[in-house]
Amino acid sequence: EAGVTQFPSHSVIEKGQTVTLRCDPISGHDNLYWYRRVMGKEIKFLLHFVKESKQDESGMPNNRFLAERTGGTYSTLKVQPAELEDSGVYFCASSKFGGGPGGGANVLTFGAGSRLTVL
Amino acid sequence: GNSVTQMEGPVTLSEEAFLTINCTYTATGYPSLFWYVQYPGEGLQLLLKATKADDKGSNKGFEATYRKETTSFHLEKGSVQVSDSAVYFCALQIYNQGGKLIFGQGTELSVKP
């Protein structure tokens, strides 16, 4: 099966501009997650979709970030306007829900990431 | 809250050396534990996982044992290769919290010939 696809792989923009990142999850995966890694720090959760609904957006840093998943298939993450501190690698992941304690974990499959550089 | 702490890198080893990357966690619920790896120029890949106490995850010669008493999930490999050079991330996932992962800061490993 095809994996999680993200594009662009690298985007360089100036402060104040807009960038839209796209993620195509594995077909049939209802769960889609966005994460970000900034400057060698930990990978931080941004938000979680179940189909087209936002299940958890507690990690979104501010209202300059807008995520959508129309139709429950691919997702976009828009940053508008971009700031210097938004630079980093944005990862998308998808999964089917797994079991609970003692059973299977919910294994996330990640894309290769989109590197964003804001100058 | 829930968090993961990894040993700081970078870690530099000679080929065939023994590897340990420490990982400890704090969790309010019952976590599953994971190690993900990012090879140069690639995305995150699941390396191994464990879902309950005393479980041992293993893959590609790497092992990690879920130690509830010490809240640890240390990654080990008996003999590293140059091809193991990568960034390693420890992560936890709490049951019934949407499946999201909480990551440590990553440990960069460099293996020299």
The beta-strand count of chain A equals 11
List unreliable stretches of 5+ residues of chain A: 98-103
* Gross geometry of chain B: globular
Radius of gyration of chain A, taken over Cα atoms and rounded to an integer in Å: 14 Å
List the total number of helices of chain B. 0
Shape of chain A: globular
Assembly classification: heterodimer
Structural class of chain B: mainly beta
Radius of gyration of chain B: 14 Å
List the secondary-structure elements of chain A in sequence, H or E.
EEEEEEEEEEE
Low-confidence residue ranges of chain B: none
Described by strand count, sense and barrel closure, the largest sheet of chain B is:
6 strands, mixed
Structural class of chain A: mainly beta
User: What proportion of the residues of chain A is helical, as a percent range?
Assistant: under 10%
Chain-averaged pLDDT of chain B: 94
